[in-house]
């Protein structure tokens, strides 16, 4: 591990915090070039009968098209009345595809949620807060 572990990671906003109607949730494709691991973090706020019916990671060699499901990278149907956090991790390995996306569908209730991705195990370290997709970074020793 490097002296500054934050340099090995990159934060990517996939779905900014929002109240979303039941159905498909808009997500942003993530370019994983230079990283070996991607984690999707899904935070669902409280709602009566909140339900996540589909949560599946997909990948592709092409930007924006030809996505296929990543085997084992899904979360089964979830129903909750309290806030919960879910995470799906994919170790790309040497032959992993470059572009990843998340297929996320909420059930019958309006959901308050946010989704972000953490790219980990950087092959090169971002030289600045810009390279890490952060407005500002601070490091204490």
Reported CATH architecture: Sandwich
Please name the CATH topology.
Jelly Rolls
User: Taking Cα atoms only, what radius of gyration do you get, to the nearest Å?
Assistant: 16 Å
Order of helices and strands: EEEEEEEEEE
Distance between the amino and carboxyl termini: 16 Å
Q: How much is the average pLDDT?
A: 80
Offer a quick outline of the entry.
This protein is mainly β and 141 residues long.
Descriptive report:
The protein is mainly β. The protein has a single domain, classed as Jelly Rolls. It has strands spanning 10-20, 23-24, 30-31, 35-44, 50-60, 68-74, 78-80, 84-91, 99-106, 111-122. Strands 2, 3, 5, 6, 7 and 9 form a six-stranded antiparallel sheet that branches. A hairpin with a 7-residue loop joins strand 5 (50-60) and strand 6. It is globular, with a radius of gyration of 16 Å. It starts with 9 loop residues before the first strand and ends in a 19-residue tail after the last strand. The mean pLDDT is 80.
């Amino acid at each position: 591990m490097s002296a500054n572990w934050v340099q090995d990671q990159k934060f990517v906003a996939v779905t900014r915090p929002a109240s979303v109607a039941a159905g498909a949730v808009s997500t942003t494709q993530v370019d994983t070039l230079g990283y070996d691991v991607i984690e999707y973090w899904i935070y669902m706020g409280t709602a009566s009968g909140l339900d996540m019916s589909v949560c599946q990671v997909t990948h592709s060699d092409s930007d924006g098209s030809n996505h296929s499901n990543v085997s084992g990278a899904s979360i089964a149907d979830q129903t909750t009345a309290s806030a919960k956090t879910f995470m799906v991790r994919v170790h790309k390995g040497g032959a992993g595809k470059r572009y990843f996306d998340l297929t996320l569908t909420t059930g019958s209730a309006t959901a308050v949620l946010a989704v972000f991705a953490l790219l980990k195990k950087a092959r090169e370290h971002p030289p600045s807060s810009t390279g890490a997709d952060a407005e500002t970074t601070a490091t204490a020793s």
